[in-house]
């Protein structure tokens, strides 16, 4: 957004409570990589220029990329400047920070959508002696106590940690609700290539019937590895991971799972089949079948009959629980009447329900690609245009 505003001649400042790319530095596990290939890692004015376009950036490489970008666009960043409040002040806005106050006509809330882990209330029912971990604090399996690990959630984070921790020699049990199954490659190309080609990532927030539901869809089950490996529930089972249904409660130290595991997996398989069918139809319609690999079918998710619906957490089998149950933004410092009854920010594709206030970084903010780094280009262009018109008016 700073790049967009500079190009439009808008005086601005970027307040950052830590260092540039702080969350990438401090809130990612050691083996973390992006879910998107390097060729998709781009920002306005800076594209990936290395010799591994089909590779996947590590956490440290992402930090270097964003650091370089900030320098190249000469962003007016004030680091180590924590904002404590944003409030209306006589037709403008006052921003309080630990480095002093600011007064401005417009504010962009770009603090991120994944500041806080969304941990269910029943987590307080974990028995004493079981370590409770959220993915923002997890670094590697060695930090966990010896013994079994229960991972709650089977989106990208959950299956990646299940894979890593099971390979470390600990027995992993993963609790599974609704999820998005997706292969790493299809017909010889990365799945992100096809998602881009068929226009799926271009879908706009105002073109879907239930955008709030679309914004809650779990991140796809992907992992970025040099061999472009597909990671799904079948591969976890092959490695010895135990599958359970969605965790709904912990009562008297006993985890209670739903009986819907088979249905959740069947629905994910069905949606995967529709996606691959759409890709295949797109290829055929353009006469490209001879230029790519043959159509592929993926084995349905294998769910053993009679998966237990309970797990006694008091018996010592499970020593730690990782809550891969999603994240939420921390907007506690926004002192404006812009939240609904459920505490969600009211906005229309990032245009907040307050004149001159904007929000960036949300899932499916303006397009499906908003969740990815390269999605920032379109989102910031649209919102910068709106901001300029607001200031002009």
Notes on the structure:
The mean pLDDT is 96. This protein folds into 2 domains: 2-115 and 329-392, 3-Layer(bba) Sandwich (FAD/NAD(P)-binding domain), CATH 3.50.50.60; 118-326, FAD/NAD(P)-binding domain (3-Layer(bba) Sandwich), CATH 3.50.50.60. The protein contains 9 helices and 21 strands. 33% of the residues are buried. The protein starts with a helix and ends with a helix. It is globular. Strands 8-17-9-10-13 form a 5-stranded parallel β-sheet. Strands 3-4-5 form a 3-stranded antiparallel β-sheet, with no helix packed on it. The protein is of the alpha/beta class and 393 residues long.
Brief rundown of the structure:
The protein is of the alpha/beta class and 393 residues long. It has helices at 2-7, 22-26, 59-72, 156-167, 191-197, 211-214, 233-238, 261-285, 376-392; strands at 14-15, 77-78, 83-89, 92-97, 102-104, 107-109, 116-117, 131-133, 148-152, 172-175, 185-186, 189-190, 242-244, 247-251, 254-257, 310-312, 318-323, 327-328, 347-348, 351-352, 357-359. The strands form 8 sheets. The chain has a 5-stranded parallel beta sheet. It has a 3-stranded antiparallel beta sheet with strand order 3-4-5, with no helix packed on it. It has a 3-stranded antiparallel beta sheet with strand order 14-15-16, with no helix packed on it.
